[in-house]
């Protein structure tokens, strides 16, 4: 379970409180505030706070005194224009603060996006819980033979069972030693900041992660992609659902021009134009490498 009864009671108490405000609010994200959305076996994503809405984007783009125009269609058209032409600063006017519980190895991949404010649970001051990410059998896969950072076929039978047993046993043994090093009765014990180094990368950590909408969209474009590692992709997909509720017009533009779109090189555009003109173009005559040609063919079919 991602949440204990005490944690759930704390969330329920937060959601029961209400404060009047003059600032812009979004009904969709208000309904999600503080609620924990489970991810993986022990993880979750929670919205802690936010600033701005769709109207804040158009207001900033126009530097206006009001909240956008009288026409929702005009606001939607402007947001789509801004997204289509890669205008970033109006989207930076909106911010989202998340509370995320995630395995350490996912956190180390996530933190590569250096455009957010992060405060992580400190294992120097507190003892980490005995919670480890253990993949479901369908997510145990061999190394890909064609992609150095990807997965291949799913492990099956005895091999899958052996890997799962090893992961569970090593995790428990490491945590047992972690507790023992911090001291038994009558012992001084090792400092928590040193004992933590014995824990495996699948132990869970937590952090607050605050990011503006422009940089959040960049994160989601990479991590919600089907090629992203499964364990971070499911977090990104959960966040996508929250952002859709928060800024529906901006998220629809993001889906149209980022998630569901493709980018062509200058040479790739010329190849497409030559094909449309009736020319038979091959990889050898295209000016593209074999990998670039394969990627272009994947886009245009």
TrEMBL record:
GO MF annotations, alphabetized: flavin adenine dinucleotide binding; NADPH binding; thymidylate synthase (FAD) activity; thymidylate synthase activity
Organism domain of life: Bacteria
Keyword NADP: yes
Binding site for dUMP: 109-112, 120-124, 196, 223
Pfam families hit by this protein: Thy1
Pathway: Pyrimidine metabolism; dTTP biosynthesis
Disordered, as annotated region: 1-23
Role summary: Catalyzes the reductive methylation of 2'-deoxyuridine-5'-monophosphate (dUMP) to 2'-deoxythymidine-5'-monophosphate (dTMP) while utilizing 5,10-methylenetetrahydrofolate (mTHF) as the methyl donor, and NADPH and FADH(2) as the reductant.
Protein name in UniProt: Flavin-dependent thymidylate synthase
Species, as recorded: Palleronia salina
């Amino acid at each position: 379970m991602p949440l204990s009864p005490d944690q759930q009671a704390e969330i329920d108490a937060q959601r029961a409180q209400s404060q009047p405000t003059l600032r812009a609010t979004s009904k969709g994200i208000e309904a999600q505030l503080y609620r924990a959305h489970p991810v993986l076996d022990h993880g979750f994503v929670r919205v802690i706070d936010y600033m701005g809405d769709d109207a804040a984007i158009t207001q900033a783009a126009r530097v206006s005194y009001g909240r956008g125009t009288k026409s929702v269609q005009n606001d939607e058209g402007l947001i789509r224009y801004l997204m289509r032409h890669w205008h970033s600063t109006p989207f930076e006017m909106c911010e989202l603060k998340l509370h995320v519980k995630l395995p350490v190895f996912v956190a180390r991949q996530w933190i590569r996006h250096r455009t957010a404010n992060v405060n992580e649970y400190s294992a120097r001051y507190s003892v980490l819980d005995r919670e480890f990410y253990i993949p479901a059998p369908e997510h145990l896969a061999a190394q890909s033979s064609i992609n150095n950072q990807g997965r291949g076929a799913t492990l099956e039978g005895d091999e899958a069972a052996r890997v799962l047993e090893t992961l569970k046993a090593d995790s428990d043994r490491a945590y047992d030693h972690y507790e023992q090093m911090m001291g038994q009765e009558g012992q001084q014990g090792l400092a928590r900041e040193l004992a933590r180094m014995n824990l495996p990368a699948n132990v869970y950590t937590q952090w607050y992660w605050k990011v503006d909408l422009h940089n959040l969209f960049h994160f989601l474009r990479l991590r919600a992609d089907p090629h992203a590692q499964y364990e971070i992709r499911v977090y990104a997909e959960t966040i996508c659902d929250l952002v859709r509720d928060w800024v529906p017009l901006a998220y629809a533009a993001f889906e149209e021009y980022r998630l569901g779109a493709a980018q062509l090189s200058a040479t790739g555009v010329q190849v497409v134009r030559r094909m449309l003109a009736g020319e038979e173009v091959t990889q050898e005559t295209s000016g593209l490498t074999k990998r670039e040609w394969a990627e272009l063919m994947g886009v245009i079919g």
